[in-house]
Amino acid sequence: MELKSKKQPADVLLGCIVAFCFSTPCWAQRLCTVPPGPVTIPENNTADIQVVKIISSSDATLSVSVNPEDLFYVKGNVLMVKKGLDYEDQPALNSTSSRTRCSSPLQVNESVEVLVENVNDNPPNFAQNHYVLDVNELAPVNSSVGLIEATDVDSEPLYYRLESATEKYFRLENINTPKILVKSLLDYDVVQKVSLVLHVQDTFNGSASNEPFFTSVAMITVQVRDVDNRPPWFQPCLRTNLGLAKLCVSGGYRGKVNLTEKEEGPLVLEPGPVFARDGDKNRSEPISYRILRGNEGNIFQIDEDTGNITMTKAADIVGPIILTILASQVNNRDQFAVTQVTIEVMKKSRNPPRFEKERFEGFIYSNSIPESMILRDRTTNRPFRVRARDEDFASGVNPDMKYEVQYSSYVNVTPDGFVILKRVVKTESFALQLQLRAVDSTTGEFGTAALSVQVIPGNTEALKAVAVPSPSNIGYRPGDMALLGLIMAALLILSLIVIGFLISRLWKENTSLEKICEVSLQNPKCLGPCLRSDRPRSGHRDSLQFTNDGFQNEADPSRGKRWNVVPRRSTFPQPRSRILPLERRSRHCSTCGVYANHVTKGSPSVRRSRSDGDEYGMRSILSKQRRKEGQKTVWFKESEDSSDIEVEIIPDSVDPDTENQSDEPDPG
């Protein structure tokens, strides 16, 4: 019992202590209370603004026990801010806390968490206003050139863009990454430097929103580097493009040397000395030269540094020598080019061209139009012409001669030597002093002469006579050419018809003549009378005489019955034929188509009418025999007068029965 009684006071004391401990917060809570959670204050606030209102008892005293940088104070039961807060200048105040002490008989501390809200109040900034970047020409598309970023203390996402005028060669990787990429190939010969304008802003499409936004600009210069991507180019050359590549094509070089003569010093070439430069415009790499081929006789040599070609000995063969020249970079032999040098070896010209006179004089009317010809004198309209001779030619005419007028814009010379007005001469009574040249285009030699052109008052008629029509002023329409072609075709067809008609006539006449000759050979009885002439011609003429050997040496027993007809030339005069007029030819010969109204005195009918003692008595060598077709009957009669010898050929048209009757002897 005593133990139990001793424990009761101790329990009571412990309960009082616990009750006191639990009763103290409740009492303090009733003394001072703040709203739960943090309090947010935007940055750039004005001074003396309320942070939080503290709920406290009427007898409580409030004070700030923890005040970072002396930013807060208590006014009544309100926690206040002494000055404006900047999120960027005081990063420590992004999240801060203040402790307020409530004093009464007891002291209570209350903590207030204050958050500083970040406001977009600063623009983005580049590290520098101007940037310089380098890129190689012909860099691949989408290759990176550089990265240029801006910073913003407000830590907002930034948005970039390039001005549209500078987007031809470059672009950005994306709107938030300002990495500059190659958009198209760069050629140093075309562009050496590109200026870019890079814009940045802290709000996407800020102009379309009501939110405040800030921008910034940076200038960027991209320099294009010339890389060694082209070989040497011989000069002069013609530039051309082959896809993305650029070429410069040289037409080669030409020179002339005399046969068996060695030229001293560098050869004079056209259009200039051998020279090549680096095809890369800004590099100018050193070039070396050498002869690849064509110098079989080692007649020429080339300077490796200058490209000048000289002769080591004289050329001994006439004709062109073609040298192939190589030009390459000294530091990069893979970059090279070749060209040709054609050297013409020719016989030395002994005489240069020379004009007929050293000074010429011509005339032109003041109202002459262009393309009018200069006149020889004042009185006639004969055109003025200059000529030059080259004594190296037998005729004095050099086909390679050309004429030219030096330093004149008024006249020109044609290849034939005529001087033609180029433009209108507006001033009367003055003279043009000109210099003429006759140039041998093969050797380059030339001769000179002076020309004085007197301008005289205009003459309309003479102007019409000497004006040379310009081809550009005379045009032929397609219709004119078609009409001309039609006329020419018609003339050609007509000519062919006439030629064909003449050929057919000649062919027919030749055919008729051949038939007459054939008939005359077969039937001389029919054609012979038509060719007789009543007028004997004097003089002797060789004639063809047929001699029947069968009548010679008839008593010779050694001769057989075979006989030959051998033609031979007669040396005594022959009887002439006589031609009868058409009106006396009443009977037509059906065999040969000619008229015959006579009977030869050697015919059988004449012989029958004559007496036996007639000197024309003859005998037939083929009497009583049937003739084969194609054979002829020949009658011979010896006569004291050789001029009376006649040969008669009986035509095939004679009836065989009639022939037999005529062959029978006359019974009388």
TrEMBL record:
Bilayer-spanning residue ranges: 481-503
Biased composition (Acidic residues): 641-668
One of the Pfam families matching this protein, by short name: Cadherin
Cellular component annotations (GO), alphabetically ordered: adherens junction; catenin complex
Coiled coil: none
Keyword tags: Calcium, Membrane, Repeat, Transmembrane, Transmembrane helix
InterPro entries referenced in this protein's UniProt entry, alphabetically: Cadherin (IPR039808), Cadherin-like_dom (IPR002126), Cadherin-like_sf (IPR015919)
Residue span(s) of domain Cadherin: 33-126, 127-234, 257-355
Biased composition (Basic and acidic residues): 628-640
Main location: membrane
GO MF, one annotated term: calcium ion binding
Region annotation Disordered: where it falls in the sequence: 538-561, 600-668
A GO BP annotation: cell-cell junction assembly
Compartments where located: Membrane
Name this protein carries in UniProt: Cadherin domain-containing protein
Organism whose genome encodes this protein: Poecilia formosa
